[in-house]
Write a structure and sequence with these properties.
Low-confidence stretches: 1-5
Strand content: under 5%
Helix content: over 70%
Shape: globular
Number of strands: 0
Order of helices and strands: HHHHHHHHHHHHHHHHH
Amino acid sequence: MTSATQIDEVRRWSMLGIGVFAQATSAVFVHGVPFLLPTLTDRGMPLTTAGLLVAMPTIGLVCTLIGWGYLVDRVGERKVLISGPLLMLVAGCAAAATTDDLALGALLFLGGIGAASTNGASGRVIVGWFPPHRRGLAMGIRQTAQPLGVGIGALAIPMVADTYGVPAAILVPALMAGLAAVSCSTGIIDPPRHPGSTADPALRTNPYRTDATLWRIHLVSVLLVIPQGTVWTFALLWLQHDVGWPPVAAGALVAGTQLLGALGRIGAGVWSDHVGSRVGPLRTVAIAAALSMATLALTAWTHWWFAAVPLLIATSVITVSDNGLAFTAIAEIAGPHWSGRGLGIQNTGQNLAMAAIPPAFGALVTISGFPAVFLLAAGTAAAAVPLVPHVPAQPDP
């Protein structure tokens, strides 16, 4: 087996780049397909049907994250990073070829299953190959894959759908997945396990049974994803409806916050490397999220737009900065034989919470307005603060 000392810096960073591309491909498939809604509805499909159809990749992803994590723990990262994108390729090509809506939904669901493979596997490659003092930076870079994928989907899929049709648009993430599978096949090496991990039964012990640390981090992440999802879901509508911005200007601002949020994830990772802790910065981010969302609620309620709009930008960065910190902490604490499942549980909880935000908070917006939604999101962030565990520095997994 290849040892960590036999991997030079170029190979280590190239595997990070491949992992980011694979994860971004999954994000294009899962989060890009919903950009087909305007084209589908313009061609006569009822909004309810179209909405269910474009939600199928997300449903497939949420249903199988933990299962893929189990496979990562059992068969290794490289096999999972090849087979998942291959499944996306096959499902996407078949979806582009079908003319039956029921079959299309089933194939998009299957593609979502393939997309779920990259979440834990790419994260585990990074945690396994990068030393602790570089791991936060590397994971922060990896966490930029989601906004990158959303951006690619927003730019490419509607344009291709309008010009060449829905089947051609579905081929965009499918062909990207094929390229990702080839890249992972040639460029990914399974990271080494901790010396003696195969023989030592203590290292194979279920970490969820020994204490509540992992469960607390999962719960903290679910609570903190609510402010993130609130800003992602309602920022555009709030800017247009309450602030009075035109759609183009509001869209440009929201797109810009995605870039700033990606940089914020990297910055949080570098910070955690510098202080030698993931949970310390995680606690600080939770406090900042609670304060910024509460202040945004106040300025939105008072119509102080000169302060509210900059606060929206700030919250867009702060509320996404915890993702890489928690993700890295889970992988480090869970260890080499449980990190795949741990990351699967982490992503499942966050995605379920994110899925509940549009209908639940949308109803609250209708009843009480945007300030009430911002204040409730601040409350969930505040509730996360005392739940952040105190964890000593982790050994190399």
